[in-house]
């Protein structure tokens, strides 16, 4: 993954958009909206990376300008961040291959957010039990955190206490297997995402060419293997990131190795691979290194980000894959 050679930025923007039928109500809401928002940025801090930890910025909604706020909160490789639904806590992976003498393990850190200043106060930390934790998600109730370990090829979940602290692990799963390319000699869990119903967790595993599926117990934060246990992608795809469309009927996977996007029909019990998208444009090896997939709410586009290049396809026009 070359984690010491890259700088990854995660922006958390606290914006809630409400669409109303009345122009009068909409105008009133526009007046009530804050003129700026606080943004948190995660970085890599080791090797050639120059980050210091978690940075804060103030985003001016009129000009789009970002202004630094205070000194960074020092942390080791907080490469991905997730906000608690209450807005009171922030969670960060510590993406390392070893942690305080523990081989093949990074960590997950919890912070309290000062409501007035946005300052972060460290609460506690838990081992991820897998190397290079690279992605995490907080469930909709704010009761649990779920983590994907890239080099460890595993996932782990932790309950969240009322004070925001991480409890002892609720569940852990070690993925097994491989696929066809040199980068796929073992599992590489690259992201973990929860559905809108807060019932399922989906893990894109680059090393297995699978999206692993788990059931979530929202009360305990525990994950259990689903039936079916995974959705299979074409050999050599290298799934990196996963997103469910706001209509809750389709899901999208950005494939890092093949530079493709795979589209699935989605419901609560059954998956069908529907079709494959156009290939993402290939500019250079450097450009192809980092990819992320996301769906724009209330829109008909799927966006694939490839380093500094973004390719978008209208969902209705994605070519049908050959069966």
What is the rounded distance between the termini?
Answer: 32 Å
Give the full name of the CATH homologous superfamily of the largest domain: YVTN repeat-like/Quinoprotein amine dehydrogenase
Helix content: under 10%
Order of helix and strand elements from N to C terminus: EHEEEEEEEEEEEEEEEEEEEEEEEEE
**What is the quaternary state of this protein?**
single chain
Give structural notes.
The protein has 323 residues and is mainly beta. The chain is 3% helix and 46% strand. The protein has one helix at 23-32; strands spanning 10-13, 36-42, 53-60, 66-68, 73-74, 81-83, 89-94, 98-99, 102-103, 107-113, 120-127, 133-138, 144-149, 154-159, 171-174, 189-194, 200-205, 210-217, 222-232, 239-244, 250-255, 260-266, 271-276, 291-295, 301-306, 309-314. Strands 1, 2, 3, 4 and 5 form a five-stranded antiparallel sheet that branches. Strands 6-7-10-11 form a four-stranded antiparallel sheet, with no helix packed on it. The longest helix has 10 residues, at 23-32. The relative contact order is 0.09.
